[in-house]
From TrEMBL, chain A:
The keyword Transmembrane applies. It comes from Saccharomycodes ludwigii. This is Probable Protein transport protein SEC61 subunit alpha. Keywords: Endoplasmic reticulum, Membrane, Protein transport, Translocation, Transmembrane, Transmembrane helix, Transport. GO terms for biological process: protein transport.
UniProtKB/TrEMBL annotation, chain B:
This is Protein transport protein Sec61 subunit beta. Residues 1-43 are annotated as: Disordered. Belongs to the SEC61-beta family. The lineage of its organism: Eukaryota, Fungi, Dikarya, Ascomycota, Saccharomycotina. It is found in: Endoplasmic reticulum membrane.
């Protein structure tokens, strides 16, 4: 019996939900790598196959800001991406964090029902989102499509999301190295970055055709142009398409984030149960990893979305105009959607397109920096409380495991942790925010947020792989010395 | 100190007799129900029932997930191809 009435409600669904069988014994590292690779391949193929039955997808993309985070591709089977799964797990984590939903972690029945409830919710959300996406005329008006094609579209979207749900479960159950969701997101971002660097597509500008990919264009210009010096300048500074400078800054940000990942404060601990067992409890600088930046970008994305919808509906309403005025910017580049906020609150929350824009409107820039840094710090601190990694929780964990900080009394564990963890969380959050702002200013390929998300996820995977024993000891220590 | 039992003798004979009896009994026994007679293809139904009891949901093998995904991808591609073909032909 579960200790919660709300969870009991999901009991009847339990027998109908498919569930990947957990491996009965530990899966060897090579097999884990293989499962991860195959799953990733399937996800990538899913995100490249266009939906059957689309008439047009010419309308402005309403979810442009959310695409990178949700690993979704427009007009493909991955239209919904991982959004239903993320949303449902977020909701449940929130319910649990705010104690609206109390579950007993020791109770097996509770844990099972909690997972079932999450899954049922994710499937319901998929259903709702698929219907909304099709009926809102994303792929042409439903009356033009016909009822059969509309149903077919909905079915395709639901089934694709269902497969992603199963693939994620497969990875998290122990066949893969880590969580599927973060892996898919990181892959999507990495794919975009690589596409911008190596795209073989050409764009015809007034002066002839140019390659879209920065590296390819660099070599093309060097070989084709007579004046090599000007070709170099062109390849490094072209404004309309990805350039080499952006590639270099992306690499620089990537390396810098990796360098910062190694920062940690090691608290020396010893066991009270087994004498002589000493170790250290590391508190990383990026204590909450990429969660604060994800939450921050989710928040701003939603503000942009609401503001855009409201502006399209009521372009003259003063309150709506205060929230944001949207249009095509006169100077500087814009993101792929073509539209950007021109004034209002949304304009101040919008990352600067270039360093030039930051200089021309310093007040906006200062506001933006303050907002991002503050937001990330607060979110990071709050997240430690919600996710059960706050000083109090860690102190309790220490006590349960019979660990004390060496050289201190066992009563002072909480006091010591209280001095370190909230500071690390808040400062780490602010650092992540600063990195995001910095990479936006440098003009990396892809937004700063997405690069940070990809890098932290990849590093997390690397850590897991190193722990699993995928690399030789030498390599790990070599890299950590290098860091 | 343990004494090794010499090979052969009373005990081995007994064992042989028992095995023989069991074999004969098995041959003589007729199926008592349609199920036991292998009605549903194979007769190891008990094992199936046990695995069913152990799980309280629809349990999927990870390989099945992969096949499901690949099948879905192929069916969508097939839909595209069919749409192209019919457009060409008619």
């Amino acid at each position: 019996m579960s200790s919660n009435n709300f969870l009991e409600f999901f009991k009847p669904f339990e027998s109908y939900l498919p569930e990947v069988i957990a491996p009965t014994r530990a899966v060897p590292y090579n097999q884990k790598l293989m499962w991860t690779g195959v799953t990733l391949l399937i996800f990538l193929i899913l995100s490249q196959i266009p939906l059957y039955g689309i008439v047009s997808s010419e309308t402005a993309d309403p979810l442009y800001w959310l695409r990178a985070m949700l690993a979704s591709n427009r007009g493909t089977l991955m239209e919904l991406g991982v959004s239903p799964i993320i949303t449902s797990s977020m909701i449940f984590q929130f319910l649990q964090g705010t104690q609206l939903l109390t579950i007993n972690r020791e109770n097996k029945r509770d844990r099972e029902l909690f997972e079932v409830a999450q899954k049922v919710f994710a499937i319901l959300l998929t259903l709702g989102q698929a219907v909304v996406v099709v009926l809102s005329g994303n792929y042409g008006r439903p009356s033009d499509l016909g009822i059969a094609i509309s149903l077919l579209l909905i079915f395709q979207l639901i089934f694709a999301s269902f497969i992603v749900l199963l693939l994620d479960e497969l990875l998290t159950k122990g066949y893969g190295l880590g969580s599927g969701i973060s892996l898919f997101t990181a892959t999507n971002i990495a794919e975009q970055i690589f596409w911008r660097a190596f795209a073989p597509t050409t764009v015809s500008t007034g002066r002839g055709t140019e390659f879209e990919g920065a590296v390819i264009a660099f070599f093309h210009l060097l070989f084709v142009r007579k004046d090599k010096k000007r070709a170099l300048v062109e390849a490094f500074y072209r404004q309309n398409l990805p350039n080499m400078f952006q590639v270099l800054s992306t690499v620089a940000v990537f390396l810098f984030v990796l360098y910062l990942q190694g920062f940690r404060y090691e608290i020396p601990v010893k066991s009270t149960r087994v004498r002589g067992q000493v170790g250290s409890y590391p508190v990383k600088l990026f204590y909450t990893s990429n969660t604060p930046i994800m939450l921050q970008s989710a928040l701003t994305s939603n503000i942009f979305l609401i503001s855009q919808i409201l502006y399209n509906k009521f372009p003259t309403n003063p309150i709506v105009r205060l929230l944001g005025v949207w249009g095509v910017p006169t100077s500087g580049g814009s993101f792929g959607s073509g539209k950007a906020a021109l004034s209002g609150l949304a304009y101040y929350l919008q990352p600067p397109f270039s360093a030039k824009e930051a200089l021309t409107d310093p007040i906006k820039f200062m506001f933006y920096v303050a907002f991002v840094l503050g937001c990330c710090a607060v979110f990071s601190k709050t997240w430690t409380e919600i996710s059960g990694t706050s000083a109090k929780d860690v102190a309790k964990q220490f006590k349960d495991q019979g660990m004390v900080i060496s050289g201190k009394r066992d009563t002072s564990v909480y006091k010591t942790l209280k001095g370190i963890i909230p500071t690390a969380a808040a400062f780490g959050g602010a650092c992540i925010g600063a990195l995001s702002v910095g990479s936006d200013l440098l003009g990396t390929l892809g937004s700063g947020t997405s690069i940070l998300m990809a890098t932290t996820t990849i590093y997390g995977y690397y850590e897991i792989a190193a722990k699993e024993g995928g690399f030789t000891k030498n390599l790990v220590s070599g890299i950590s010395e290098l860091m | 100190m343990s004494t090794a039992v010499p090979p052969g003798g009373q005990r081995t004979l007994q064992k042989r007799r028992q095995a023989q009896n069991a074999k004969e009994n098995k041959l003589k026994q007729t199926p008592t129900s349609a199920r036991a007679a292998g009605f549903g293809g194979s007769s190891n139904n008990i094992l199936k029932i046990f695995t069913d009891e152990a799980s309280n949901g629809l349990r999927v093998d990870p390989l099945a997930v992969l096949f499901l995904a690949v099948g879905f991808i192929f069916s969508v591609v097939a839909l595209h191809v069919i749409a192209k073909m019919t457009g060409k032909l008619f």
